[in-house]
Amino acid sequence: MYTKGLLGGVLLVLLTACPSGGSGGGSSNIGGTVSLGSSITGQRLQIDPQPGKLRHTGEARFVPGEVLVEFRGGVSLQSVSSLRLQVQGRPVELQQVRPLGLPHTALFRAELSEAETPALLSALRSRSEVVSADLNWLEQPLATPNDPGYSFQWHYPAINLPQAWDRTTGSNSVVVAILDTGVLFRSGNPAQSHPDIGNRLLPGYDMVSPLSGPNPLANAGDGDGRDADPFDSGDEQSTGYHGTHVGGTVGAATNNSQGVAGVDWTARLLHVRVIGLLGATVADQVDAILWAAGEPVPGVPTNANPAKVLNMSLGGKSPCTSVRQSAINRVTGKGAVVVVAAGNENDDASLYSPASCANVITVGATDYAGARAPYSNYGARVDVMAPGGDVRKDLNSDGYVDGVLSLGFDEQTQQFNYKFENGTSMAAPHVAGVVALMKALSPSLETAQVLQILKSTARPLNATQCNRPSGSECGAGLIDANAALAAVQGGTTASFSLSTANTILSAQPGGSVNVPITISRSGGFADAVNLSLQGAPAGVSGSFNPPSTTLNDSTLTLNVAPSVPNGTYALTVRGTSSSTFASLPLSLRVGSGTSATVQGTLVLACFVAGGECDPNRSKAIQINQGGTSASYSIPDLAQGDYAVLGWNDLNNNDSVDQGDYLGGVVDNAGNLAAVRPGNLRADFQLDVLSGDISRLSPGVLRSLERVGAK
């Protein structure tokens, strides 16, 4: 039976070394049964549940080697003048400096560096006599930038950013990519460069490619195709210099006595122009995502400064496509965090992309009052909220509209300026900037860890503030930058995340899909997680086995009634446990334009040589029988090892791609099995291909497509 081998990454090592059974005697053929499957499988995203090491930049914010320890009531401070601990595998002796004014609490000191000190906390907290242990923080007056426009940036105090700046203002080792309209900046040309961008820009790229039609460069607007110049070639009506405004929120030159402040003062910024005068194609977005994170893109020089945070303040009312999801999965698998805007339609965010994609942080917008902005999308797919503003109001009576203030350009005077704008596009870079600050403290933080910290430290919105039947439709609530950084500095946060092999699902009307759900626990989290399905259309129902579990696995069974129309539907799996929750977005495609049948399936006996398929010595037959299963036989095979695969090219394009049926004979580990000719039954199952096709062995692809073209 086909399980996970073809999409689980195992085809990089094509075959196991031993045959699956049988001998080479009798007639030299392979036969068996091919059938349609009902489960969609694919590559599991592996998430490291361990938090990264604490890393400070700049001046230390706590006293190295010092900790505050509170003991249980029965412990006398005189009896603990010193403590001996094992810290990261070596003995450390703590000496009591003095008791504090609190009961059973004292200051202790060890000869440790700043980098070594945080490891004391877990060692102390594991002791039965210790109630609490904390670093001896060295606090300073709140950091307030001297940029004159900062007093109008109400949106920073709204998320406790000034307090957060006393923890860190960022690190130049963190790169934030802004995938947008480009930037008003050209190195060495002040006339074309906004003066408040500063010197932190890295060499970006223009990913806007020519379109088909009579004017291929209409979208680019700069007279050429892709190049190393991400300058915004639009105007107020087309691009609105959107990318410059968004980039300014992430990291305008700050504390420079000019203009406005950015969320992160130090991170380096990488502008990738992906939105042209007409919009952003998915193809350009996919390349931009990969390039920004340092992945190779054909025809484009590799980015020498891979980003660890990507901001995408763009989107449209469409499902998350498989290719876009695959690109996101690839970069998040490398440790990058992708932040996206929820959308501005006052609608369910699960209907929009990339807001509905998995492995992204989807951000809704709040106004000056801390309520959901009237335009902001909402729903189960929203993770957190951040200030997006509302230019129709002046609730703080400062004489200016309550928009987000950042970098701009005045078309009439042809002068660079600063503008108040509103939208979830303005909310997302607040989160991207905070994520950059988090990564300055702990560079190895991954998406699931970042998201759980943001959620667990956010301030929830109630139903009235969210202006929806439930406050949960505004995600975890308004982010709190200071609390988020404190959580990073404090170490482990008890939490969980949800994942599955594939988030892009397919089923026929009247069929079903089994979705294995993985619950990844971290920080000692051990409570039961309750699972539910949200956003299912009429006729689509889901059940979990088990629905509540303290284990790490559950299976969602989606049943699709025959009456469900063909189309793509956005679903969300929600896991809750007390105040902790996690969401997993799914995209369900019902129908494919082709009835579920094995008819037309090519069954290939792929001759294995040197760990790959040899197309010249392989043979294939085609199934002409209809139905959900059929027997087959491939005769006259030479002796040797064969991989047996089946492929139904549903869109008749002679290419193995998303939505086709694919399957093969695998062993118990899910690897393709080596099959020997000789009256051996080789049964296997076809499933809809919806995983990362780049993981398929090139030899398998060439062989399948070669026999398909015949």
From TrEMBL:
Q: What keywords sit in the KW lines? A: Hydrolase, Protease, Serine protease, Signal
Please provide the Gene Ontology terms (biological process) for this protein.
proteolysis
Q: Where is this region: Disordered?
A: 212-250
Signal peptide from the UniProt entry? 1-22
Query: Which branch of life, at top level?
Result: Bacteria
Entries under InterPro entries matching the protein: Peptidase_S8/S53_dom, Peptidase_S8/S53_dom_sf, Peptidase_S8_His-AS, Peptidase_S8_Ser-AS, Peptidase_S8_subtilisin-like, Peptidase_S8_subtilisin-rel, Peptidases_S8_13
What protein name is recorded for this chain?
Answer: Extracellular basic protease
Species name: Meiothermus granaticius NBRC 107808
